[in-house]
Amino acid sequence: MSVSVREADFDIGAEIDALLAGRTDVGAVATFTGLVRDMNDGSGVHAMTLEHYPGMTEAALEDIVVEAKSRWDILAVRVIHRVGLLQPADRIVLVIVAGSHRGEAFAACEFIMDYLKTRAPFWKREDTPDGSRWVDARDTDDSAARRWD
Amino acid sequence: MSVSVREADFDIGAEIDALLAGRTDVGAVATFTGLVRDMNDGSGVHAMTLEHYPGMTEAALEDIVVEAKSRWDILAVRVIHRVGLLQPADRIVLVIVAGSHRGEAFAACEFIMDYLKTRAPFWKREDTPDGSRWVDARDTDDSAARRWD
Amino acid sequence: MTHKTIKVLYFAALREALGTPGETVELPDGCTTLANVRSLIAGRGGDWDKLAQMKNLRAAINQRMADPGATVADGDEVAFFPPVTGG
Amino acid sequence: MTHKTIKVLYFAALREALGTPGETVELPDGCTTLANVRSLIAGRGGDWDKLAQMKNLRAAINQRMADPGATVADGDEVAFFPPVTGG
Questions:
Q1: Is 1.10.760.10 the CATH classification of the domain at C31-87?
Q2: How many helices (H) and strands (E) does chain A have?
Q3: D59 contacts on B by Cβ (under 8 Å)
Q4: Chains D, C in contact: 3+ Cβ pairs under 8 A?
Q5: What are the tens digits of pLDDT across the range D23-53?
Q6: Residues of chain D found within 8 Å of residue B124, distances taken between Cβ atoms
Q7: pTM of the predicted model as reported, rounded to 2 decimal places
């Protein structure tokens, strides 16, 4: 299973090892890990709750992985996105792309993150000293995703 | 020390954890790992020996990290490059870039790899069924590095 | 003829504004698109009008992103939500 | 006047072709640039000519990449090598 949506944390090294197990054709592995920052839009963040649309999140992530594989010559992909209550420095999302060469691995990894940010149904609510607030979508995420159109 | 050149293998998860220890300001971690492939330029590869220029390799890598930090707003960088005898599926190089946001982390990580490929004094010799051969530099690496000029 | 019945889900800030995670909705004749469904529910007035007021509303049919003009069929799962903010 | 003495290193395919990892070289008057040093050593003939023949030769002075016109000073560490292939 290349895509997981779950509350549990992940071990980046173990996930890479599992994805590459038994393979000797991989020359390049690009990864991205997203973490909870203690500051956002000028406010301290004590905690974050990630809501999602069960079923659609998995389908959306799988569609994005299929699209990445159709665009680049890559060998294996793993995506994990956590949901529920998270603290600053906690890991949120992991994308691993393995390929023969680095250009494809980097491009596909960044593509998956850009599409995930605008197409996968997750929503962040932050707890700040001024109370709880839903995080606004960023215009920069929309423009990042449009680069690939 | 952000740069290491050594024979010993590395643990990607442990290196990320060490780079992020105690920080809550990192929102994005991009990594690249290069591995020995069992095929290159149409020949099977049984083993690879990485020669380097001791002293200059470390200086060249440190220059590249300094340049990356001057170009992008990134928080922490780690580069490890192995030397000596390696087998297919062995790890060769690791680059980790931590930043506030993903765009800078991805760009700086890819920049460091592109510059490393053309400016750091390492040379690969492959053992194939037809004997030992020095790996030729790739034009695609030169053009990848020139993207950043 | 029989009326179409669909499941409607709300997420995040919209779920909070409407006070419910979802409901079953019976569609009158002529209510055939996502835009029609949105207007139907918002037309109840009160808090439901927030469905009409929310900027950049996104929607899905059967767990795939869909445009306002997309056709809604009997038994579909329709969802309305704000722009996504994962990753 | 005293002559300049430099350390010269060879790497990878060039080291193998020349049969040595390096040497100490005394520079005659007028031998002031990297290009001059390359010609001086290649001019010994035999296998040393490979230093002149190697395409895309790269060089460093005191462990920094340097161009053929760069000036070589007494005590410098000069290195000649093929294009790099790490990563």
A1: no
A2: 4, 10
A3: none
A4: no
A5: 999 999 999 999 999 999 999 999 999 999 9
A6: 85-86
A7: 0.95
